[in-house]
Amino acid sequence: MATKAESLINALEIEVARLTERVSNLREETASIRDMAAQLAVIKEQITELKKMREEADRGYWQFILLFVGGIVTLAINIVVSFIKK
User: I need a labelling partner for 12 at 20 to 30 A (CA). Which of 21, 31, 75, 81 fits?
Assistant: First the structure.
């Protein structure tokens, strides 16, 4: 028959095995969390780059609009000047 000490040792061995498995599972989970954190960092960097590209596109858009309006104003001034000279 198993003595009280032996049964306690068996119970401790079972508990140690269970805890070892839990630690192993936690290590795997933390590795996957690290991978997700790395992916998140890459996504944040890509979003920052997209924002910069959007700002540059907006700047180019406004430059085009100002160029177009400037051309229209110049054309209107030239038309007015040509009518005044006649």
Answer: 31
